[in-house]
Amino acid sequence: MMPNFPFLKNKKAEDKSEVFVPSRRDFLKLSSLATGGFLLGVNFQCAGPKGETITFAPNVFVSITSDNEVIIVAHRSEMGTGIRTTLPQIVADELGADWSKVKIVQAIGDEEKYGNQNTDGSFSVRMFYEPMRKTGATARHMLIAAAAKKWEVSPAECHTENSQVLHSSGKKIDFGDLVAEVKDMPLPDPESITLKEFSSYKLIGKDVAIYDARDIAAGKAVFGADVNLPGMQVAVVRRSPVIGAKVISFNDTKALAVPGVNRVVKIEGAGIPPGLDKPLEGVAVIADNTWAAMKGREALEIEWDLGPNQTYNSAKQLEEMLQSTAKDGKVRRERGNFLAAQRAAGKVLERTYLAPFYAHATIEPPAAIAHYQGDGICEIWAPTQHPQWARQAVATALDLDLDKVKMNITLLGGGFGRKSKPDFVVEAAILSKAAKSPVRVQWTREDDLHFDFFHSHSAQRIKATIDKDGNFTGWNHHTVFPAIGATGSTTELHPSDGELGLGCTDFPYDVPNIKIETHESTAHTRIGWLRSVSNIHHAFAIGCMMDEIAEARGIDPVKHALQMLGEDRNLEFKPETDGKYENYGEPIETFPWNTGRMKKVIERVAKEANWDQKLAEGKAVGFAAHKSFLTYVACIVVVEKDGSGKISIPEVFYAVDCGIGVNTDRIRSQFEGGAQFATSLATTSAITFENGIPQQKNFDGYQIIRMPQSPKKIHVHIIESMEKPTGVGEPPVPPFIPALCNAMYKLTGERIYQLPFKA
Amino acid sequence: MEKFSISVNGKKQEVTADPDMPLLWVLRDLLSMKGTKFGCGQALCGACTVHLDDEAIRSCSTPISTIGSKKVTTIEGLDKEGHHPLQDAWVEHIVPQCGYCQTGQIMNAAALLKKNISPTVAEIEEAMAGNLCRCGTYNRIKEAIITASEALYLKHQSI
Ligand code: FES
Ligand code: FES
């Protein structure tokens, strides 16, 4: 099964988010779910000395106890973006809760109850800003109604603050003291719910510290491998060294002789194609502890049928891909007549760009815990970005009904797209069933780098034409990379429309002749999506090429971008892509591509970075702008060479328009981290394959930047906006890479055409 | 398998383990202390950093048999209340993103400040180079270390 790209907000997701749009029927449905659900019974009721604690839960996301405790459910996975804080922060603000005392609990994976939980594609805030406000506002209305009735005053004279209802006379009452009255009150008509004025928000639009900061610093935060169950065993797996390899036979005598090793179990793999949600073929060693399992694995003897991928060499494929871009490809977008523009051109620039495979390399390697109980119930604890997919994949693998799988979500020690794939969760479930005990499956770093769902390597060729008067008249972009879809289907040979809509077919510049073409390539490993997906390589090529075109035309690159964006207007891509532009799963009428907003971020970043200043000797600046995941970003990178020739990045400037900024501190932190992440992609990281096997085994081979090489000052300027909010997890990455490359060119005089380059 | 008696956060712990078992797995699997993290197993990422006496070490690459009478301190024992100046500074600067690398970062920084109460930025960068953060929190880590170093310095002055 190939889901339509989970990093794009898909149709199903849209349907589900409707659940929270206030139609009376839906609210009632939610309410009845809540009263029967885990919110009430298990987690929050405790009998205090004052008697029984009772709870008011107008919907599944918020509940208030008679002890005046406000509990908000976080239903999206926390992998470092701060979403576990940001969405509850919205509810709390509308409710008027005392934020310092709000308790946040993590939802289990349950789509029926919570709607879409796929934490991917930078869409959590985009999708849930409105529903979360309504959730908080509904509870506020009910509490105010109860207080007003008690005081015999008009609700209009009351407001909420610090988990209290206040009357204009100065009277106040704790939320908790209203719970008895409000508990059985019918839900108000959604039409009657008014949201607060933006200017009155105390949390939305502010720097709010993440809920888990103290626990993380104390070492108390619970990540995937930290859950401990009585009688739990630990498994490590020797997986097929080459994708598609099959076990012919294995000898576990020596493995079983290792003290602490209890059992060896074969896992049936999917073969070719490997699939996005299936485990790889392998042999698992199950032991008392991680070390014994690792020692046992070393002692395994396995004979493999390596299959067709054993001769795969990525450098060779990349060269072939590059050659293919010189030919005519499959046309994916067309405007005007590029060939005519080429014939009439005074100058044609033709450049090629190569980028490697990248691994996600979250510092937490995949790990998951499963407890298969005899009665056909399987309970899971996992750091997954996509609880529902993981739940479904476990149910399928064990042939269980979905409701027999309980999916608990831990914190994720990084995700970046890797942990949306549930293969490792399924492994845990299979092994727990085989071992008849709770099992933690533990991946090592070597496993993680060997068996990732990699960001695809890519080859691109861009031709740009400039006519005799110096006008930029034609753009011909060829792109080729093994597609994500190929992981699920061997017939997927071209990048999908979804992947092209990520920074390629949405080329926004006002060039009269455009032709975008793709070429075939096959996947010999598992391809997945990495923070910003194909925007990474597309922005690299386009951002570098635009810099060269500006130079060829004798125009400053910032002025050039502004000029080429043209008039302030909304762009359309569907007419030129045969209707296939996806706009990140959103209707383009609701989330338009507006050149004016793009120009604004460019102007802002140029101003903040003092772009026109003459830089001191040994320094240079580079610029690029790129919209992704509906968020507009412009970036300027400063590079510097010291006396010894060492290059560093002393400063980075970002301007971002993500609509309403909900948690401004977490927006900044995503950009700070995004710059660091992109520095690794640009300068240190690459996975290469020989004989079908990745050559980088650990952080010595697959390098990510360390503190000394990291960009130093990262300035993030958030455009004040009342537009609909859009995500910020991925958008910082794409423009940084070309901005850095363009700065390097100014510093060294050499253009960069291949990643990673040595800084 | 052998019996070992080690001191962890001031407490004697008896464990039976393979002499080669890294301290990391002794802590996590045998003693159920989950604050020390596994990132690479090869002394390349720093997620597993603990103190052996006053030195920051990578517990993933330190066999239990080499501990002897040296005192092990983990994140759980850095400060009883979890309010070491570094932990407070970490919260103040909202350093963590995913948080996974952070206990190792804090333990490494704590060892640095024990030796050098007012490190320069260059000294911080050098000392912290062994601790990876994939989320890219390096700049806030630096700021938090400076804040903590100032707090420690003031405390030191007032004594
Ligand atoms: S786990 Fe020990 S240094 Fe990475
Ligand atoms: S905070 Fe995620 S790895 Fe450092």
UniProtKB/TrEMBL annotation, chain A:
Any one GO molecular function term: oxidoreductase activity
InterPro entries named among the record's database cross-references: Ald_Oxase/Xan_DH_a/b, AldOxase/xan_DH_MoCoBD1, AldOxase/xan_DH_MoCoBD2, AldOxase/xan_DH_Mopterin-bd_sf, N-heterocyclic_Hydroxylase, OxRdtase_Mopterin-bd_su_IorB, TAT_signal_bac_arc
Domain Aldehyde oxidase/xanthine dehydrogenase a/b hammerhead: 218-308
Pfam families: MoCoBD_1 (PF02738), MoCoBD_2 (PF20256)
NCBIfam families: TAT_signal_seq
Protein name (record): Molybdopterin-dependent oxidoreductase
Organism: Aquiflexum gelatinilyticum
TrEMBL record, chain B:
Native source organism of the sequence: Aquiflexum gelatinilyticum
Keywords: 2Fe-2S, Iron, Iron-sulfur, Metal-binding, Oxidoreductase
CDD domains reported for this sequence: fer2 (cd00207)
GO MF, any single term: oxidoreductase activity
Name assigned to this protein: (2Fe-2S)-binding protein
Keyword Repeat: no
Superkingdom per UniProt: Bacteria
Ranges where the 2Fe-2S ferredoxin-type domain occurs: 2-78
